[in-house]
Design brief:
Layout lengths: L5 H6 L2 H22 L3 H22 L18 E11 L2 E5 L5 H15 L2 E5 L6 H12 L7 E3 L4 H9 L5 E5 L2 H12 L4 E5 L5 E4 L5 H13 L11 E5 L3 H14 L18 H16 L3 E4 L14 E4 L6 H4 L6 E7 L5 H7 L6 E5 L3 H10 L4 E4 L18 E2 L12 E12 L3 E3 L2 E3 L4 H7 L2
Parallel strand pairs: 2-3, 2-5, 3-4, 5-6, 7-8, 7-12, 8-11, 10-11, 12-13
Antiparallel strand pairs: 1-15, 6-14, 9-10, 16-17
Length: 451
């Protein structure tokens, strides 16, 4: 290990690395068994990003600080004060996480909370509790004091009780917008602090000058990754008319190449949806759209006869009023929608949604890319890429996609209160000059300058 290798330095001695690899493998397996996602993806994405988030946030635990403020104290002339702020833990935090990224969402929530010094009651989704429970065991084994992190399983009523409990000072929730509204109502009685990371109906804008070798597979990954069960899934793909047919063909080819199968099969690229309920919901959206005139050049139904798999689906001939264009499907379904280069309707169409979580732009024109990014109402805009996340980069939405931001050092503020402290140090007898009071240390100045 090189002396200047910070990642290697973090990993420590060989025995630590062996233990770390074993824990990562176990957590990845639990994610696949619980959620259905391919084991290869659980290892490379979910577990790796979770570990990175904890590493990143642990570095901030010793860097939480306030400020010393020179106050003017205009109501107390001649007095001196020491004024400063300090950051303090908000108290007991209730955290409720979803089933699409069970382990990663635990990390997004627990990482900044533990760095801020709060205690947590965490409720995992009833469909996918295993990785959270195992992570709790690992935390105790690593020496985290009992009672700092408390994991409670249960159905929606358990989450509602947690949000409403008088002993909870703050609630952090990730899930659907509908459930987010319920959380806000439950927390309103005691005016608890609330952060919400909710749903999305994210647009991708693909221009005719885009690098198609990058844009077509990139846009496909933006919707089909994690079986489309991503809050930021790029499910509305706006394609410039001149290249519409080419892109639809390319995205359809990408969809047909995806190997759908069991998550434990090393050849699987897309696993089943997480539950029968979600499977039926996605098929219901497909049935509604196809029955209303949409066409499916790729996919359009369930994949195979067993399990909860759905074919990666590309839809054309949709209309803006269709449910599958307006509502969050949370499955591997993209609507391909043409736009004309000579008009500006693509911005209006992209923003024509109750959500504002994420968006993507595919173009070689960097000026156009940034102009479009500034006008799209979304918490994150990806240019010539999609679903690029980092522990240091904030993530969250506007409109009905939530309140506040996850990740980045500002996420610590979700779990901190700022206290102002003002101390009186001394008073000086003021000197009167033309009816104004001045401190005595300014007398020399007054005697020289006074007419």
């Amino acid at each position: 290990m090189a002396a200047d290798d910070p990642v290697g330095a973090r990993q420590g001695d060989p025995s630590h690395r062996r233990s770390d690899r074993a824990a990562r493998g176990e957590l990845a397996l639990l994610e696949t068994l619980d959620n259905g996602k391919p084991l290869t993806i659980a290892r490379a994405a979910d577990v790796a990003l979770s570990a990175d988030l904890f590493h990143y946030m642990s570095g901030w635990a010793t860097k939480i600080e306030g400020n010393t403020i020179p106050i003017s104290a205009i109501t107390s002339p001649g007095s001196e004060f020491l004024a400063y702020t300090r950051k303090e833990p908000v108290g007991v935090v209730g955290q409720i996480i979803p089933w699409n990224f069970p382990l990663l969402m635990v990390a997004w929530k627990l990482g900044p909370a533990l760095a801020a010094g709060v205690t947590v009651v965490l409720k995992p989704a009833e469909q996918t509790p295993l990785s959270a429970l195992r992570l709790g065991d690992l935390m105790l084994e690593a020496g985290l004091p009992a009672g700092v992190v408390n994991i409670v399983t249960g159905f929606g009523d358990a989450g509602a009780a947690l949000a409403a409990h008088d002993g909870v000072d703050k609630v952090a929730f990730t899930g659907s917008t509908e459930d987010g509204r319920l959380i806000v109502r439950a927390a309103a009685g005691k005016l608890k602090k609330v952060t919400l990371e909710l749903g999305g109906k994210s647009p991708q804008v693909l221009c005719k000058d885009a690098d198609m070798d990058v844009a077509i597979p990139g846009a496909a990954n933006g919707i089909f990754f994690n079986q489309g069960q991503c809050c930021n899934a790029g499910s509305r793909l706006y394609i410039e008319r001149d290249v519409y047919d080419e892109v639809v063909q390319g995205i359809s080819d990408e969809a047909r190449k995806i190997k759908v199968g069991p998550g434990l099969d090393p050849e699987t690229q897309m696993g089943p949806l997480t539950s029968a309920e979600q499977h039926d919901k996605v098929l219901g959206y497909l049935s509604s759209g196809l029955g209303s005139g949409a066409r499916a050049p790729a996919g359009g139904g369930r994949a195979g006869d067993l399990g909860y798999s759905v074919q990666p689906t590309v839809l054309t001939d949709t209309t803006p009023d269709m449910k599958l264009v307006r509502e969050e499907i949370f499955g591997p379904v993209v609507c391909a929608i043409p736009f004309h280069s000579e008009d500006d309707d693509v911005i209006q169409s992209g923003n024509d949604t109750n959500y504002g979580l994420a968006s993507g732009i595919w173009t070689r024109d960097i000026s156009n890319a940034h102009r479009t990014a500034h006008r799209l109402r979304a918490g994150t805009v990806w240019i010539n890429c999609y679903s690029v996340f980092d522990a240091a980069m904030r993530f969250g939405g506007c409109k009905e996609s939530g309140w506040g931001r996850e990740m980045g050092h500002n996420a610590l503020d979700n779990y901190l209160e700022t206290k102002s402290v003002v101390t009186h140090l001394a008073s000086r007898k003021p000197v009167r000059w033309r009816g104004l009071a001045w401190p005595r240390h300014r007398r020399h100045y007054q005697e020289k300058k006074a007419p």
